[in-house]
Design a protein that fits this description.
Blueprint (H helix, E strand, L loop, with lengths): L4 H16 L13 H9 L4 E2 L1 H10 L4 E5 L3 H6 L6 E2 L2 H4 L2 H6 L5 E5 L4 H12 L5 E4 L2 H9 L11 H16 L7 H5 L3 H19 L1
Parallel strand pairs: 1-5, 2-3, 2-4, 4-5
Helix pairs in contact: 1-2, 1-7
Length: 207
């Protein structure tokens, strides 16, 4: 998801306001360059796709730190597996930034991307370059990663295999009740016959 020009301007304005309230940092200087920031946000390097992150989680990759910047109440209601909760107001504090493990890739997420981008800008301005935003945020994650759409009745073998892979990842990450066998392996004839038999029963019952 790439931001449009007016969105970039709005985010930069918000971040400038945040930085004005930022306490002085002795061990790390906070410097923001709007021009460079806008160029970075319009590119691809500021975000990471959810599919990649989901595979890393299933594989047990420990080279990244997943940070949920929402409130503790929202985090308690549901969050991505292995994520830690550092609310945005806490994350942008100098002492929090100094304690971050910068040896790992930092992945930020919120419900959408707005708050995560605000956190990204502050960390980026604090010279933490190995930080990205989860594309689509938790909303996308819940809709597409945890609940992949099953293939249609006439899906190809490749489409079925892709769904099986996505469903397996979703299951490992606590996704919805995905019946891989019944949704992908039943022959087409069996499904059609099953539907017709149901209609006959209803008709007989009506009489």
């Amino acid at each position: 998801m790439k931001l449009q020009g007016n969105q970039i301007g709005a985010f930069v304005a918000i971040i400038l306001g945040l930085l004005l309230a930022f306490l002085p940092v002795q061990s790390r200087q906070i410097v923001i360059k709007p021009g460079a920031l806008a160029r970075t946000i319009t590119g691809d390097e500021y975000h990471i796709d959810p599919e990649t992150v989901s595979k890393w989680l299933v594989e047990g990759n420990e080279d990244f730190l997943l940070i949920d910047v929402r409130s503790p109440e929202e985090f308690a209601q549901g969050h991505i597996k292995n994520a830690i909760n550092i609310p945005l107001p806490e994350l942008i504090k100098p002492e929090t930034i100094d304690e971050l493990d910068t040896d790992k890739l930092i992945i930020l997420y919120s419900n959408g991307i707005s708050h995560a981008i605000q956190a990204w800008v502050v960390l980026h301005a604090a010279d933490i370059s190995d930080v990205v935003v989860l594309e689509g945020g938790l909303n996308y994650w819940n809709k597409y990663i945890l609940n992949p759409k099953p293939p249609g009745q006439y899906a190809s073998n490749d489409e079925i295999l892709i769904y099986k892979s996505k469903a397996a990842i979703a299951g490992a990450l606590g996704g919805g009740n995905l019946d891989i066998q019944s949704q992908t392996n039943q022959p087409t004839k069996h499904r059609v016959f099953h539907k017709k038999s149901k209609k006959k029963k209803r008709a007989e019952g009506g009489c």
